Amino acid sequence: MKIGIMCATQQELEPLLARLQNKREEVRLMRSFVTGEYAGLTVTAVIGGVGKVNGAITAQTLIQDFGAEKILFTGLAGGLDDTIKIGDVVIGAEVLHHDLDMKLMENDQFPGMPTDYFRGDPELLELCRGLGDNLRFGRIVTGETFITAKERDGIIERFHPQCVDMESAAVAQVCWFFRVPLLVIRALSDNADEEVEGAYSENGQWTSVSALQVVFRLLEALGKQ
């Protein structure tokens, strides 16, 4: 089985690259795609960059050029649910854009897309259950802005999400087109509030590892199938 794993930044991916065996590197679209073996699976890992377009073209390349049969998108996110604490991991049961606000949109989606939200792959979601005490299964929203206290309340009121990031909905949209199963796994580095910048810098390294621990356990479960 071929698995594509995406992160937005270097610190989110380094611990994974260290565990891959028999690694080889290919450069496409100015990105380094590293393919190796883990838990009996062929894994291609890549830093996709920040933002929707970066996420989308990276996901498409994983599918078309590297034959990814499933994609895991991991990394950091800002918390939008006061019952979840920094370091907890949100598994994306639902993923949608929060920054679409046009009269032509259908329930905050692009015309022709699913009219509610993109769904995390049911099989991958089920495999995640029991993989950690700090997991939450819920809604992740995406927009091309770094959310702070000023925007926080409006997004919570409109979407009731667990967390926010800048890529996942675009990646989900690509996977929907190609019918490739996707699961988003995000650790909370901050609470998208007035302390966001300091919290992101202070917590980024160790919270990235929290998300990757779930990825490792999920890969091991997939390798046993």
Q: Strand-and-helix sequence, N→C?
A: EHEEEHEEEHEHEHEH
Provide the number of structural domains: 1
Tell the overall outline.
globular
Q: What percent strand?
A: 25-35%
- Going by CATH, the architecture would be 3-Layer(aba) Sandwich
CATH topology: Rossmann fold
CATH class descriptor: Alpha Beta
Mean pLDDT: 87
The level of helicity is 25-40%
Number of strands: 10
Radius of gyration over alpha carbons? 16 Å
Question: For the report, how would you describe the main beta sheet?
Answer: 5 strands, mixed, barrel
Distance between the termini: 10 Å
Helix and strand composition category = alpha/beta
Q: Helix tally? A: 6
Strand order of the largest sheet: 5-9-8-6-10
Description:
By secondary structure, the protein is of the alpha/beta class. It has a single domain (2-223), classed as Nucleoside phosphorylase domain (Rossmann fold, 3-Layer(aba) Sandwich), CATH 3.40.50.1580. The chain is built from six helices and ten strands. The chain has a five-stranded mixed β-barrel with strand order 5-9-8-6-10, surrounded by four helices. A hairpin with a 2-residue loop joins strand 2 (21-28) and strand 3 (31-38). Helix 1 runs parallel beside helix 6 and helix 2 runs parallel beside helix 5 (168-178). The longest helix is centred in the last third of the chain and has 28 residues, at 196-223. It is globular, with a radius of gyration of 16 Å. 41% of the residues are buried.
